[in-house]
Design goal:
Strand content of chain A: over 45%
Shape of chain B: globular
Largest interface: A-B, 29 and 28 residues
Radius of gyration of chain B: 14 Å
Oligomer: heterodimer
Mean pLDDT of chain A: 90
CATH architecture of chain B: Sandwich
Distance between the termini of chain A: 36 Å
Largest sheet of chain A: 7 strands, mixed
Low-confidence stretches of chain B: none
Shape of chain A: globular
Number of helices of chain B: 0
Helix content of chain A: under 10%
Structural class of chain A: mainly beta
Mean pLDDT of chain B: 91
CATH topology of chain B: Immunoglobulin-like
Chain lengths: 116, 119
């Protein structure tokens, strides 16, 4: 089965530093998502991205966050100035068709971000 | 806004027996999709089963089946002949079927249920 690839698997950073989390969605997919999961808590939606623009974002996704699809294959999440509370597992997901279908989201294995 | 509630933080089952995980949700929409995801210790999210709200027939995938009660807004997962590899965190999730609008494809997850399988 095709896979969504996320790098790195673990990222440690100092508070206030910028981090970029990278994802390679499945090649023919058009819809892209970031979710996060703070340890022991539910998985939370951050942002959806389609046609080179944000389709929807949650209230978590404030001005410190941005997403980009710089080269047609990678999909990145940037956190401009990390806070301690940004420590979480970040999941990238993609799907080939849009929300009005039951098409499943393919999730990556996640990047565990630790902010010290 | 939609909410998803899993009231069982932990469940356990003996190998080869059957277990049911509960999920309820709240929505004002009539058309939507429901999912169960499995998250093993590796923390990867794996789709177990999905259900379209417009379908009355309950979805089944091998040993996994759901009991979808639309009027009661209930979506439970039954795992038959439980195996050691079924041990994981299970998340129930909701997705609107409307394109555009305020719910553009996002999944809303419940809090999760940790399933332990005893040999």
């Amino acid at each position: 089965e095709p896979e969504v690839t996320q790098t790195p698997s673990h990222q440690v950073t100092q508070m206030g530093q910028e981090v970029i989390l990278r994802c390679v969605p499945i090649s023919n997919h058009l819809y892209f998502y970031w979710y996060r999961q703070i340890l022991g808590q539910k998985v939370e939606f951050l942002v959806s991205f389609y046609n080179n623009e944000i389709s929807e974002k949650s209230e978590i996704f404030d001005d410190q966050f941005s997403v980009e699809r710089p080269d047609g294959s990678n999909f990145t999440l940037k956190i401009r100035s990390t806070k301690l509370e940004d420590s979480a597992m970040y999941f990238c997901a993609s799907s080939s068709t849009g929300p009005a279908t039951n098409e499943k989201l393919f999730f990556g294995s996640g990047t565990q971000l630790s902010v010290l | 806004a939609q909410t998803v509630t899993q009231s069982q933080p932990e469940m356990s089952v003996q190998e080869a027996e059957t277990v049911t995980l509960s999920c309820t949700y709240d929505t004002s929409e009539s058309d939507y999709y429901l999912f169960w995801y499995k998250q093993p210790p590796s923390r990867q999210m794996i789709l177990v089963i999905r259900q379209e709200a417009y379908k009355q027939q309950n979805a089944t995938e091998n040993r996994f089946s759901v009991n979808f009660q639309k009027a009661a807004k209930s979506f439970s997962l039954k795992i038959s002949d439980s195996q050691l590899g079924d041990a994981a965190m299970y998340f129930c999730a909701y997705r609107s079927a409307r394109s555009g609008g305020t719910s553009y494809g996002k999944l809303t997850f419940g809090q999760g249920t940790i399933l332990t399988v005893h040999p």
